[in-house]
Amino acid sequence: MQEAIEILQREGTLIFPTETVYGLGARFDSDKALAKIFTAKGRPADNPLILHVADITWVERLAQDIPEKAYALMESFWPGPLSIVLRKKPEISPRITAGLPSVAIRFPSHPLARKLLEGVGIPVAAPSANPSGRPSPTREIDVLEMEGRVDGILLGGDARVGLESTVLDLSGEIPRILRPGAVTMEQIRAFLPETIVYSGASDKAPSPGLRHKHYAPDAKVFLLKGSPASIADFVQRASPSSCFLLPEGLALGYDEERIITFVPGGDLEKAAARLYSALRDADRQGRSEIYIAAFSSAGIGEALMDRVLRAAQGRIVTLEEV
Ligand code: TXA
Ligand code: MG
Fold first, then answer.
1. Bridge partner list, 216
2. Alpha-carbon span 162 to 181, nearest angstrom
């Protein structure tokens, strides 16, 4: 931990665990360190970074005109998987905000992330620690692939949530969810009933990151829709180079590496925690197609469906009744 703190203080880049996904951090006030994040990830400069803090009081160093309702959300959901977009202080580097007038801020709950941030003593800018366009890393083996591209890696086991934080924009008139996550729309609407969900339909995406290709493995991903019987039939006939993420009921009959139980006992949180590792494992095994059986989009299911559809780049297979 002490070494990790010093790497960041000395303007290095460090991969560290958070409860959502691993982050690739640099101190927020060093242009040189921030530039290294973009190089290590191959990240386009028009995609802004989230600032990570270790206390609500740090937010005032970074943002201004903070609405009262932002504090209610911070008190309820921090530390945790919610990033809040606020109007930035003028001194925040445009490298962090990609030139936007706003900045995204998050207080992570992972004990190692908290200890690290407290030790560094200042905010740390951190995108997810994947090469740009790839699924975010949720395990130690995933971040070890970045060895040599960063100045240090702090290992912390598997990420508990497994999907990136909810991004909520409070910098405008109407609260908008720019990226769904483990803090759900229902939870946010309990505080801010007027919250809308950004649909992703327009080209002028307010969250620049949403314009870019995301979360995609090398294998082609498909969302699979159909009755249990039609899915079972499809699995039987599919090529051996494909793999399947199925609900427990459907996966039970098989003892094959290419069949993965995705939603054990209907538990969507477990499915969320396993999505990115399953996509990465499919690539490691050289699969050419990944079929993911449709699931409920209630609660965290909304965030999960968002990531699956992005990975599938809109590809959906609808099966006929057998
Ligand atoms: O869970 C997470 O949020 C992880 C961990 C490491 O904290 N971080 C993460 O960062 O997912 P990244 O860079 O992969 O995704 C940040 C998202 C991008 O979609 C970006 O466009 C959006 O947040 N974002 C950042 N600043 C923004 C701003 N000022 N306005 C709108 N969107 C912003
Ligand atoms: Mg990312």
1. none
2. 10
The pair of structure tokens assigned to 74 is 């911070």
Test site for ligand 1: of 82, 128, 168, most ligand atoms within 8 A of the Cβ: 128
CB 126 within 8 Å of CB 16? yes
Model confidence over 110-146: pLDDT tens digits?
999 999 999 999 999 999 999 999 999 999 999 999 9
> Distances from the Cα of 174 to the Cαs of 167, 209, 251, in angstroms?
14, 20, 43
Nearest ligand 1 atom to alpha carbon 208: 21
User: pLDDT, tens digit, for every residue of 224-269?
Assistant: 999 999 999 999 999 999 999 999 988 877 778 899 999 999 999 9
Q: What tokens appear for 131 in the block? A: 């090469």
E-strand ranges in the chain read: 14-16, 23-27, 50-52, 63-64, 82-88, 102-106, 124-125, 152-153, 166-169, 176-179, 196-197, 220-225, 242-247, 259-263, 289-293, 316-318
Cα–Cα nearest to 266, from 279, 250, 278, 253: 250
Look at ligand 1, atom 32, and give the residue with the nearest C-alpha: 207
Mean predicted lDDT score pLDDT of the chain: 94
Could you tell me if the CB of 23 is within 6 A of ligand 1?
Answer: yes
pLDDT per residue as tens digits for the range 283-317: 999 999 999 999 999 999 999 999 999 999 999 99
Gap between the Cα atoms of 86 and 83, Å rounded = 10
Q: What is the DSSP string of 191-211?
A: T-TT-EE--S-SSS-SSGGGG
The 10 Å Cβ neighbour count of residue 241 is 12
